[in-house]
Amino acid sequence: MRFGICSKVQRAGELRSAGADFIEENIQAFLQGLLPDPEWQGAEIARGSALPIFAANSLVPADLKIVGPSVDFEKLQVYIAKVVSRAQKVGMKILVFGSGGARNIPDGFDRERAQVQIVAFCKMAAELCGRAGITLVAEPLNRGESNIINTVAEAMTYVKSVNNKNFQCLFDTYHFWVENEPLENLERAMPWIRHVHVADKDGRVAPGESGTADYRPVFRILKRAKYDGAVSVEALDFNDFESVGKRVIAFLHRQWDEA
């Protein structure tokens, strides 16, 4: 199993020393889809990376709305095309569609109309990703962070509506546990799970750091389904890769082996 860490590419050397297999970057900070091409330095930075930049999250900035009365679909399309082009240049394979701020339903806005808008956006983005050999994954966010697509089960309704092999589903242990989803939802979604995020429920700290999280039931489901994607640590206040990072990666390997 490949385990990576969400961090800046500039820290790739530290991540490799910690035992990480790849980096997951932040789209807003690294791919910068609103920045003109002459000003983007990501390709040059990526060439010096000690690890592959396999994935990136935070697809759409909060003020570029996907849902609501003021959606500018043409602007979204131009933005996503630029993000996908840059992701392809640095060898990324996964783009994560969380973007709670951009997809949240405004007060008083019709929920069914919001769902139609999200499907239209995902169809457009999946088509662009497909041309570049990239998979877009829907990330369920707990209700404290978003008012739509809160569970794996709900995310799967969008995956099936979009019906494009380049639009699949992400599984995030933190959001899954916060929402108290049953493991059966993950089992049913496994044919469409293409990326995984991990963090402990208590404090959203790195795996194993709270002392209360057991990943083995989840990992057993992944192993039974022969999951061959990647697993990214996405935790808060996780910066000490030299000591804590080694402990976290070792913990994940141990939990995987014991599952």
Short summary of the structure?
With 259 residues, the protein is an alpha/beta fold. The protein is built from 11 helices and 8 strands.
CATH superfamily grouping: Divalent-metal-dependent TIM barrel enzymes
What general outline do the C-alpha atoms trace?
A: globular
Strand order of the largest sheet: 1-2-3-4-5-6-7-8
**Order of helix and strand elements from N to C terminus:** EHEHHEHEHHEHEHHEHEH
Mean pLDDT: 97
Oligomer: single chain
Taking pLDDT < 50 over at least 5 consecutive residues as the criterion, the unreliable ranges are none
Count of strand segments: 8
> SS-based structural class?
alpha/beta
What is Rg? Answer: 18 Å
Task: Report on the architecture of this protein.
This protein has 259 residues and is an alpha/beta fold. 43% of the residues lie in helices and 15% in strands. It has a single domain, classed as Divalent-metal-dependent TIM barrel enzymes (TIM Barrel, Alpha-Beta Barrel). It is built from eleven helices and eight strands. β1, α1 (12-18) and β2 (22-26) form a beta-alpha-beta unit. The longest helix is centred in the middle third of the chain and has 21 residues, at 111-131.
